[in-house]
């Protein structure tokens, strides 16, 4: 809701992954780190991919999957 109703939102909650792809950062009650990858299309937030982070760096395959899905949504 903070992203939906408070846009634009910056760090530490939201980070740009460039070219219209955004990462929403969250820490779950279990202290695990979760990420949602999203984009905007026709004034709507489109969640493309969600995952639990296991390393400090966002895995390339998760970014690639989100970019592919973003291409499907925006084309």
Word description of this protein:
Strand 1 and strand 2 (22-27) form a beta hairpin. It is built from two helices and four strands; from the N terminus they run αββββα. The longest helix is centred in the C-terminal third of the chain and has 15 residues, at 60-74. A four-stranded antiparallel β-sheet has the order 1-2-3-4, with helices on one face. With 75 residues, it is of the alpha+beta class. It is globular, with a radius of gyration of 12 Å. Helix content is 27%, strand content 37%. The N and C termini lie far apart (27 Å). The mean pLDDT is 90.
Give the helix/strand layout.
Elements (H helix, E strand, L loop, with lengths): L1 H5 L7 E3 L5 E6 L5 E9 L2 E10 L6 H15 L1
Number of helices: 2
Number of strands: 4
Outline the biggest β-sheet. 4 strands, antiparallel
Report the radius of gyration as a whole number of Å.
12 Å
The secondary-structure class comes to alpha+beta
Order of helices and strands: HEEEEH
Tell me the strand order in the biggest sheet.
1-2-3-4
Strand content: 35-45%
What number is the mean pLDDT? 90
Tell me which oligomeric state these chains represent: single chain
Uncertain regions spanning at least 5 consecutive residues: none
* Overall body shape: globular
The share of residues in helices is: 25-40%
End-to-end CA span = 27 Å
């Amino acid at each position: 809701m903070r992203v939906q109703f408070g846009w634009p939102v910056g760090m530490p909650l939201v980070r740009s992954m460039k070219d219209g792809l955004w990462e929403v950062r969250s820490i779950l009650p279990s202290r695990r780190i979760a990420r949602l990858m999203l984009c905007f299309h026709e004034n709507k937030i489109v969640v493309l991919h969600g995952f639990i982070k296991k390393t400090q760096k966002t895995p390339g395959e998760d970014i690639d999957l989100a970019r592919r899905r973003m291409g499907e949504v925006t084309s």
